[in-house]
Design goal:
Length: about 375
């Protein structure tokens, strides 16, 4: 019995057992209960140590305590069968923008033996539901979080709470505010590079002069404001003779964006082109162009992939597409590395690409759509 008592009292053995339980068990709740019970049992053993109590009573208690420790260890070790789960919460799902990211995340997760919890609101702009999904992922004890915030400010407190609990968090496609640190990193589209692509394209199709309108400015996201600012700056440098005659804010409702685009197209003043700064605004502008037949010559340059056939037919001139597959791969690599105590790059920018009739069949573009052929079992 003295050997069992030494086992309970040995701090090195206890810490070793705790560490093994932590790495084997994905359930934070089970691990915390295991740790608390060990502390209680250790305290009781110390209080009941000779010569203060009867040896027979002490031996009986030691036997019970040893059995309970073994049971706790078996429970913690049994969690090994459950894969480490990473919560991934984009703004929405089932779109050409976010499903490539899903594929990139799934590929890296499978290679590293990680499980992905993927969920998001059915409609982009439903920040309440997105926050509920984030809270659910954290309450379930998931070991990491990848988040594309629908609103910058609304998501800060949950993200900071997760990093304080030493949960690796990767923010995608937004600048949340807090600087990167041991448990926080950013992987985003390179907005400056995307702005240059759009400005170059506008300068080419308008031959360096003309007028345009900008719609789809998203004030609820830092990345949305940055996109508009960097585009205007790039355009002023590349084609200073092209005038911006209208700026309109955007939201996640296609019908509303269509209404705004129709109003602009129906105005008496001449508009040569519309730059739509989001997938929703691009789709709404395309529908508006179909409805306003008298302005069918207006050129459309959009952002964020959501349309393919209109580009192929020429109804939409071009779209600056995010390489969200690569963004997803890097985001999951960051989480995996941080789970193993490794440092990662604080901010990673991924270059976008220009989708046109000429580039629609390019290999780097077609790789974005591989998610439709991916086997999604065991993800």
């Amino acid at each position: 019995m003295s050997g069992k008592l030494d086992l309970l009292r040995d701090p090195n053995n206890t810490e070793s057992t705790l560490r093994r339980a932590w790495y084997r068990c994905t359930s934070v709740v089970v691990f915390n209960r295991f740790r608390k019970l060990q502390k209680i049992l250790r305290l009781k053993v110390e209080l009941l140590s000779p010569p203060f109590h009867d040896a027979a009573i002490l031996n009986r208690f030691n036997t019970i305590a040893f059995i309970l420790i073994v049971i706790c260890t078996v429970i913690a070790s049994g969690c090994r069968e459950q894969p480490t789960t990473i919560g991934v919460i984009p703004r929405t799902t089932g779109t050409l923008l976010w499903e490539p990211m899903h594929l990139g995340i799934a590929e890296v997760a499978r290679a590293n033996g990680l499980h992905v919890y993927w969920n998001a609101p059915a409609d982009e702009g439903d920040i309440g539901k997105q926050l509920n999904f984030v809270s659910r992922a954290l309450s379930r004890g998931y070991r990491g979080l990848i988040l594309a915030p629908d609103e910058t400010l609304a998501c800060r407190s949950l993200v900071l709470s997760a990093t304080e609990d030493r949960i690796p968090v990767v923010i995608v496609d937004d600048e949340l505010g807090p600087p990167p640190g041991p448990f926080l990193s950013y992987v985003s589209n390179d907005e400056a590079a995307g702005a240059r692509l759009a400005a170059d394209r506008i300068a080419t199709i308008l031959h360096g002069s003309g007028s345009l309108a900008i719609i789809g400015i998203i004030p609820r996201l830092e990345s949305g404001i940055l996109r508009e600012e960097t585009f205007e700056k790039a355009l002023s440098l590349i084609a200073p003779d092209i005038r911006i005659v209208e700026r309109r804010y955007g939201d996640s409702v296609v019908a509303h964006q269509q209404q705004i685009a129709e109003e602009i197209m129906n105005e008496p003043r001449h508009i040569d082109a519309v730059v739509a700064l989001s997938a929703t605004a691009t789709l709404g502008t395309y529908f508006a162009k179909l409805a306003v037949t008298s302005r069918s010559s207006i050129q459309i340059v959009g952002f964020d992939q959501g349309l393919l056939l209109p580009v192929q037919s020429g109804e939409v001139d071009s779209i600056v597409v995010q390489n969200t597959k690569k963004i997803g791969q890097i985001a999951m690599q960051n989480v995996s590395a941080q789970l193993h105590g490794k440092k990662v790059k604080g901010v990673t920018l991924v270059a976008p690409m220009l989708l046109t009739r000429e580039t629609i069949a390019a290999p780097e573009i077609e790789r974005l759509w591989e998610f439709s052929r991916h086997r999604w079992d065991n993800q």
